[in-house]
Amino acid sequence: MIQDYVVFVGVNIVLAWSVYVVLLAGSLSFANGGFMAIGAYVSGVLTVKFGVPLVFATTIAGVVAGAIGVLVGFPALRTRGIYLMLVTVGIAVSVKAVIESIDYVGGIQGFGGMVGTTEWHVVALVVLVGCGLWFLSKSPLQRILDAVREDELVAASLGINPVYVKLVCFGAGAFLAAVAGGFYAHYLIHVTPDQFGIVLSVFIVLYAVLGGTNNMWGPPIGATIMTLIPEFVRSLESWRPAAFGIIILGLLLIRPDGLLAFRHVTTRAKGVLATSLSDGAKPD
Amino acid sequence: MLVEQVINGVVLGSMYALIAQGYTLVFGVLDKLNFAHGEIFMLGGFICLASIALGASLPISILVTAIVSGVLGLMVEFVGFRKFHSPDAHITAALSSFAIGLVIIDLSQKVWGAEPVALTLPGTLQTATISIAGLTVVVLRLTILVISLLLMLVLYLVVTKTSLGRRIRAVAESPTKAALFGINVTRVNQQVFFIASAMAGLAGLALAVRTGYASTDVGFTFGLKALAIMAIGGMGDLRGALIGGLLVGVLEALAFQWDLGQLADVFVWLFMIAILLVRPAGLFGTLVSKEIRA
């Protein structure tokens, strides 16, 4: 039981971070559920059909998903804002449909036989990714990401290539999601394409946004709370989805910036700007 | 056979267009995606079902559906959007409306169950056919097509010709300036939500009547597809939603005709991605104004 919690919370933390990494460069990805599916299936095929060791297989799956992410992301990042959001939704839907139509991995029935994930794999993964992100937040790269996120044009004028930066973040997000998906699949033993639908992608984004996306500690908090809440409302059994939805709404209404939203210099400056220009003011 | 499929596709497309126009109206005014829209569409069928079960005639239940869906839209606006009005909040607003959608789905599954519920109308309304130039067409489909086109025409006239439409366009252009000119922006938002949701409810009713059952799944499948259609047409543009809807409807019908049925769901997304790669703002959209505001 406790092992379940550790694994699911850990996997969801990494997934939330995968969205956070993409958001670092200012784009929002609903495709991470799809990349998670790629990770689950690629690593599953490698371990079950080719006998590759688990950790190695998940790494390969992550690299494959990252490469696919970069390939798809390159054209997708031509679009912006809500259009980009919709393109990533499209990617997630398409990945699911493609997997459903490949008989080699079981089609709609799903793919089974993956074993081997222990809670220590997941804990190690969370610690590793956490350390990576912590070093990132102290490194000059973080400032480049901040610049791209806050204002692409200014960043470009400073000699930063925004498309390249966003692409790297998109690929990194895909990599993380796929690795998480690999370990997840090897814990569940059997996965079906249905598990990786668009709802999952929306939930991953929810984990990150509910926790707060302007620092690396928000997404894990959001993921932990959102994974455990369904267990707490289990006593409501039949009202679970409704209660869950209401809790999400409440959290968003009370803390729209996320539970852990520290005020950074950049956001404060943006707030001052926003009040001085007033909300909707914009150059025509 | 081919022509009949095309006609079916146009009828399907007109329903897509009704939903997509609701999305696009809300997006044009608020710059935010309303993920609960598809669920209101889904409820449209059930509201009609319930009012017919309570003994209302079809015209009255159509009226009831429009009004109840509109009021639900007002609730969605109040709960999911009122607080998230700043331009930065579009992710939050999208997620909060998604949460409202979850609640709506669950509650309606509580009331009507997870299985589709049959909706049969008295008389031969659902089965009557008519032959035009050697083609057999179900009358109901033609009626649905005509009514949806009429609804969209009325919406277009309201937006372009009436004072309400002028207010809507002013808020879409710039909420701040509209407020400076004495327009009650919140009121306009409510009106837009009412109109959009009423149209979605009617589209849901049309789908339920056409297929003969109301189902709790359609909100998600149709709702997401309509979202893609809105992007294909260009966000905030009513013409775009109409043409995108018809285009996707016909192409889907043709895909069924050529036995590509299971790819139809993906197809609309690939089509959207392809269009957005060539025209990053959709067929009729312009990037500039929206982009600066976002």
User: Helical amount among residues of chain A, as a percent range?
Assistant: over 70%
- Total number of β-strand segments of chain A? 2
**In order across it, which strands form the biggest sheet of chain A?**
1-2
Structural class of chain A: mainly alpha
Strand order of the largest sheet of chain B: 1-4
Largest interface: A-B, 48 and 56 residues
Average pLDDT of chain A, to the nearest integer? 84
Give the biggest sheet of chain A.
Answer: 2 strands, antiparallel
| Number of self-contained structural domains of chain B | 1
Tell me the series of helices and strands of chain B, N- to C-terminal: HHHHEEEHHHHEHHHH
- Helix run count of chain A: 12
Radius of gyration of chain A: 19 Å
Class of secondary structure makeup of chain B: mainly alpha
Distance between the termini of chain B: 46 Å
The share of residues in helices of chain B is over 70%
State which percent range the strand residues of chain A make up: under 5%
Order of helices and strands of chain A: HHHHEHHHHEHHHH
Largest sheet of chain B: 2 strands, antiparallel
Explain the overall architecture.
The complex is a heterodimer of chains A (284) and B (294). Chain A is mainly alpha-helical. Chain A has a domain of 196 residues. In chain A, 73% of the residues lie in helices and 1% in strands. Chain A contains twelve helices and two strands, in the order ααααβααααβαααα. Chain A has a two-stranded antiparallel ribbon. Chain A starts with a helix and ends in a 7-residue tail after the last helix. Chain B has 294 residues and is mainly α. Chain B has one domain. Chain B is built from twelve helices and four strands; from the N terminus they run ααααβββααααβαααα. A two-stranded antiparallel ribbon of chain B has the order 1-4. The longest helix of chain B is centred in the N-terminal third of the chain and has 29 residues. The N and C termini of chain B lie far apart (46 Å). The C terminus of chain B is likely disordered. Chains A and B meet through α4, α9 and α11 of A and α4, α7, α9, α11 and α12 of B.
